[in-house]
Specification:
Elements lengths: L7 E3 L4 H4 L7 E5 L4 E7 L4 E6 L4 E6 L3 E6 L5 E6 L5 E5 L4 E5 L5 E5 L1 E2 L2 E2 L6 E3 L5 E4 L3 H4 L15 E4 L5 E5 L5 E6 L5 E6 L10 E6 L6 E8 L8 E3 L5 E5 L2 E5 L5 E6 L6 E5 L5 E6 L2 E6 L9
Antiparallel strand pairs: 1-24, 2-27, 3-4, 4-5, 5-6, 7-8, 8-9, 9-10, 11-12, 13-14, 14-15, 15-16, 17-18, 18-19, 19-20, 21-22, 22-23, 23-24, 25-26, 26-27
Bound molecules: magnesium ion.
Length: 301
């Protein structure tokens, strides 16, 4: 047994079985202005993530360290992979969601709805039926810091894009939807509300039933304090791992806060990666961190 325990806070005995007290919280690299949108590319053995204000997507590998994947990136934010491994990205600057094909070509998946431009797509997940779900808050057009200050044309909705290209606003009652994730069996959809820029709206995660194929319900599942659930991921037991102002919070499927990984910078987003998806990669303001967990993430591939 070794390593520091000082970066864990446990609130429930279950948390002790999810973390390893001899696994360090490692800072892998830094120097960013606002890092977000991590996605593990298992086949390439690398992590991709956005440095939004610097208009670039970065790549980190254990062997080489940090390099540039794409710059300019249209102020890209959240990323995921679709069911055949292609990169799907939210872009603030171009106000669209794109897919990077295997040959590197960029395909536009969504850029407008009912004749109006999207705001600034923020975070994205792909369901097993191939549908693409993304949040569209206003953060990327509210200032020139993470995109281009522009007029908002649409409410801050969550959209679903069918594999046939049909687009649908599926959640329309959010202040600012942000991180989103399906439960392991896809019976539930979790969506974070991080509130309007400059307002003190509630920072919480809502839960929706997916029994009918479309989200129903939407009760508040968990209130994040301090900070916000800018990004969340699910482990194989259905626990939620969410960004927060003081680190990463682990929340049980019943909504109980089990414990925290304290990170020295405000955390924006997280993803599971590594050989067994047992490593938690953490984008936190100016730095990229990683910690090994005793739990595997539900994540492709
Ligand atoms: Mg986000």
């Amino acid at each position: 047994m070794g390593g520091s325990m000082s970066f864990y806070e446990s609130y429930d005995p279950r948390f002790g079985t999810y973390v390893m007290f001899n696994a360090p919280l490692k800072k892998l690299c830094g120097g960013f202005d606002w890092a977000e949108g991590p996605v593990w590319m298992g086949d390439a053995g690398c992590l991709l993530f956005s440095d939004i204000p610097n208009n670039r997507i970065l790549r980190w590998t254990p062997e080489v360290g940090l390099s540039t994947y794409r710059a300019p990136s249209n102020y890209a934010n959240g990323h995921t992979r679709d069911r055949v491994g292609r990169l799907v990205s939210c872009e603030h600057g171009s106000r669209r969601v794109t897919r990077t094909e295997w040959d590197g070509a960029i395909t536009v998946i969504a850029e407008g709805y009912q004749g109006k431009r999207l705001n600034s797509p923020n975070d994205v997940v792909v369901k097993s039926d191939g549908s693409i779900w993304f949040s569209d808050p206003h953060y990327g057009i509210a200032t020139d810091y993470e995109g281009y200050q522009s007029l908002q044309e649409l409410p801050c909705n969550v959209y679903r894009v069918d594999p046939d290209g049909t687009m649908e606003a599926v959640l329309t009652d959010f202040n600012c939807p942000n991180g989103l994730a399906f439960s392991p069996d896809e019976s539930l959809l979790y969506v974070a509300d991080t509130g309007r820029l400059g307002h003190s709206d509630a920072q919480h995660i809502r839960v929706f039933s997916m029994a009918s194929g479309r989200p129903k319900g939407g009760a508040v599942f968990h209130v994040i304090k301090p900070g916000a659930s800018d990004g969340l991921r699910i482990d194989s037991d259905g626990n939620l791992w969410s960004s927060a102002g003081d680190g990463v919070h682990c929340i049980a499927p019943d909504g109980t806060l089990l414990g925290k990984i304290l990170v020295p910078e405000i955390v924006s987003n997280i993803c599971f990666g590594g050989r067994a998806k047992h490593q938690l990669y953490i984008t936190a303001t100016t730095g990229l961190y990683m910690i090994a967990l005793n739990r595997r993430g539900v994540q492709l591939p």
